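[Target chain]
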Amino acid sequence: MLMTVITAIVIGFLAVGYTKNEPEALNIYLISSILPAVITIVLTGAIFMVKLQTKIDEKGIQYGFRPFQKKLRLASWEEIDSVYIRKYKALSEFGGWGYKFSLKGRGKVYNTKGNMGIQIVFKDGKKTLIGTQKPNEVKQIIATYTSKKTSYEI
């Protein structure tokens, strides 16, 4: 939403500047303002194209941001110590949304919105949290692929 507002502001300033410029200065104004406008619009469009993809199957849990990651990361069942659904606070625990890591020992996070995620604790002690909009479905899917007891924390 923030990027959409910024894009609207940039386009608004361009429109106002275009109408207030003298005809002889219009070419310079257009040349100097088109690049920032194009960059802002392209970045906004790219953000809307990014999708967090999660796939849970017999191999394990695969996750990543498309289109940036062509091959999803795999957390195989053999390397996972525990996995469960939990509620989290993106800002206070990880500093926001996206791909982040915590300096307080909470591990890495992949999320785009919401406050529910798949918490993976690896056998080596590392942690990864993957945001999900379907916590109940994910809990059931995880249960079908692992004999470990999963828990649901809120």
